[in-house]
Amino acid sequence: MSENKFKIKLEMLSDWQIGTGAGIPGSTDELISKDADGFPQVPAKSLVGIWRDALERLCDGLGGNWSNWVEVIFGIQPNLIDKTELAKRLKNGEKTYSNSILSIQPARISENLRARIDEDRRLKQALTFVKVGVKIDADSGTSETEALRFEEMGRIGTVLDAEVELDWSYFTDEQTEIASALLILSAKLVERIGGKRRRGAGKCLFKVFDSENVEQSVKNAKDKIAANKDEKIKPPKKAEKPDEQTTGDKSEQNDSGWQTCEYTLTLETPVSIVTAVLGNVSETLDFVPGTYLISHFVKHFGQEIFNAIQANNFQISPATICIDGNRSFPVPKVFAQEKMKKINAEKKEVYNRLLESLKEKDQTKPIREGFISGLNSNAVSHAATPQTILMHNAVDDKVQRPTTDVIGIYSREAIKAGTILKGEIRYKGLEIDCQKLNGRVRIGTSKKDGGSAKIEFQRPKLFESKSVAKNNELVVYLASDAMLRNKNLRQTNLAEDLAEALGLKGETIKSQQIQVRRIESWQTSWGFPRPTLTLMQAGSVVCFKTDKTIDFDKIEAEGIGERRGEGYGQIIFNPPVLTEKINDWKHIKKLDFDKCKNLSDEEKQNKKAKIDKEFAEELKKDKSLKDFAEIIEETAWREELKIAVSKIAAEEKLRKEFFGFEIDRKENSKKSIPPMSQIGGLRSAVMRLQSNTSEEKRQSSKIVTDWLTHLKNTQNRFEKWGNERIGKIRKLIDEDIKIWLILCETEIDGIKVWQSPKSLTHKKEDLQKKLWAEAVKSLFYACQHAHKRDTEKPGKEDENNGEEN
User: Fold this and answer.
1) For residue 242, what pLDDT band results from cuts at 50, 70 and 90?
2) For 504, phi and psi rounded to 5 degrees?
3) Half-sphere exposure of 258 (CA within 13 A, CB side)
């Protein structure tokens, strides 16, 4: 496992649950963790926690100083270091905080199987089920009142995989082999994961796939650890990379001016850009600052990028949500919206306060959050960044569960997985190949077990200004946060200081709408907070009255203020969306990110064909995946079968058509034809039907046909049935296709009662053959039960519409 990327596989040997701490009022008390597409998953935090615990147990068993490897691989846990040890480390110059060399994705169902399941919602619904639970009173040993619970569980047989990446940059070859062996062996110690582990849930096989022969990898790992039992090979002392120059393409000076290159960021997992912490809850920004992407450029192009940033020749703009397939911009702070919609109005009116007075308008409120589709049109699409809440807890190692001693539950806001964001880079005097940067990045908080995103770059082009010249008036719009200082070198958010930065000192300020953003950041390698930043927030607008001529293109390309390389200080002059009245305002509640992909019909068909081919190959190679697909497929068919037979059984005329069950109504009495006692006898024979093998099917079918033959030979019973009824039931047993013809062709109010779920592994005919007995038994039982209910005499409550006498 010396490679830096590999996969782990989780095969669930029992039902399992990774709870979210949330439920559906009046329905389910606890929901299972799901990804952005609605598929059950094992969060990366759970994987890291259970794997670290297994490695700790392994190293404790090996004795000596093997436990030092745990901190090197999974990082230091500062909250578990007591004050004495912390002081000792600081005194010796040791790090009190270090990153893990391991980063991991959530364990999810394979991409090809997900694509196939996603074609039919019934297959997705079959991935989980609701389990009923109740609390038992410790004193009486009986269930407590009002303690009934409904919990969503994942199915036994679920197969999940996750990508793992390791940073071996400061490991020697021998250290890499030892760390790999420890990870492989500790994975074998993982037996259960998730909640309810002590009650039988979460039993699993945890495998590390670094080669085709997993067992051989485990044997090699054992031999490697045994050969190093005297601990000759020790872990690196510091988890930090050596100082070295990363190499990239040598750049040649290009004096042709600024170039720009748009990039797209597709979030594979939720991304949290923490901006404030309130108790156990951390808030996130609704965009990704350029600061978080600088390391990606440095990794590929080295010191060259740092030099360009210092010379103000390189900028990375913030990544904002994609609206209608295009990059969006922060909503201008001068926009205001009606609080209440007018009668007969289709939507609330939106006003531009630069151009319209609100004095005679109905009550309005400023629009402070979200992004707009563009700046060059007065037809505006507005949307907010999709966000979610991530819940996790700290586990006390002694009792292996959350306790008040370790605080317990944490909540973190995050941008939803699946969100597509767009931004751009600007550079001058550089020759860089942006296509080399396409790949995956880790951004945001908790990168070890989250923050994964796919980044793609378009072809570079010459920078084109979005600013528009206008006489006597200048509207300045901040496209990103701006970091300005006044003459006393203090951070400032005053319009006068903005005017000085633009070379407009002393000009008249007609109006201003400036908001402030405060950022609390963290120095990861030091383990200490950075100074607080007070910024002029993106979307702020200042309008000047001036006749001065300034170089719009130059200022817009270079930006203003400090840390422009990280995307701060980007401005646009006189954008049409601010200099014209709003013509149309459309608020998008749910963003359609498929527009950003721009796939043609032919590309979609080719993609589907590729998925089908790869999925077929996966099933041949991985038996456990095939078994899981069969479970999902058969469960979906069984659930559809329950619905179909219930619809048929509810119709009296259909019960008569298929089984001959009738109700003889005379005055206030109801009589079953045939008698319920004989229908019950037939049911006992039908319930013994089997279709597992041809022989079992033949023998079980013979039980039913013999019962019918005996009935026919008994005169007094035969008279109550008749040849027609016996013939219908016998035909249902003798002809395999009959039950499926009934289900597939029956219509109620013009709607068919049965729609076959999509097939994953079997052909439709094979599933019909396999589920034949279940279909016959389900339909007969449902019709018999409904017939019995309808023939029962109504009670006093029914006769009086539910009222007691």
Assistant:
1) very low
2) -115, 30
3) 20
CA 620 to CA 639: how far, in whole Å?
Answer: 27
805/803 Cα distance (integer angstroms): 7
Pair of tokens at residue 373: 């589709």
- pLDDT tens per residue across span 654-694: 999 999 999 988 877 888 899 999 999 999 999 999 988 88
Under a CB-based contact definition with an 8 Å cutoff, are residues 779 and 648 in contact?
yes
For 533, phi then psi, to 5°, come to -110, 135
**Distance of alpha carbon 445 from alpha carbon 284, whole angstroms:** 10
Q: Which secondary structure element, helix H or strand E, spans residue 639, and what is its range?
A: helix 623-649
22 Cβ contact partners less than 8 Å away, ≥ 6 residues apart: 30, 31, 391
pTM (two decimals):
0.81
Q: 596 near 264, Cβ under 8 Å?
A: yes
Q: Supply 555's token pair.
A: 């200022």
| Dihedral angle, C-alpha 40, 44, 50, 53, nearest 10 ° | 180
Which H or E run includes 382? strand 379-383
**Cα 792 from Cα 665, distance rounded (Å):** 11
Task: Report cis status (omega within 30 of 0) of the bond before 43.
Answer: no
Rounded to an integer, what distance in angstroms lies between the CA atom of residue 314 and that of residue 187? 44
**Euclidean distance between CA atoms 19 and 30, whole angstroms:** 6
pLDDT of residue 213 exceeding 90, the answer is no
What pLDDT does 290 receive?
Answer: 92
Q: Are 14 and 202 in contact (CB under 8 A)?
A: yes
Give the pair of three-digit tokens for residue 295: 């390391």
Are the CB atoms for 2 and 176 separated by under 8 Å?
A: yes
The two beta strands, 491-492 and 584-588, are unpaired
Those residues whose C-beta lies under 8 Å from the C-beta of residue 219, and which sit 6 or more positions away, are: none
Pinpoint the alpha helices (H) of 189-302: 214-227, 294-301
State how far the Cα of 45 lies from the Cα of 53, in Å rounded to an integer.
12
- Buried b / exposed e over 77-88, threshold 16 CB at 10 Å, is eeeeeeeeeeee
Task: Give the sign of the dihedral formed by CA 601, CA 606, CA 607, CA 609.
Answer: positive
If you ran DSSP here, which 8-state letter would residue 416 be given? P
Distant-in-sequence, close-in-space partners of 40: CB < 8 Å, separation ≥ 6: 18, 32, 33, 34, 109, 127, 128, 154, 158
Residue 459, helix vs strand vs coil: coil
pLDDT digits (tens, 9 = 90+) for 795-805: 544 444 444 43
Question: Among candidates 499, 510, 589, which has minimal Cα distance to 548?
Answer: 499
Phi, psi of 640 (to 5 degrees): -65, -35
* Side chain identity, residue 600: S
Q: Output the six-digit token pair for 379.
A: 């037809």
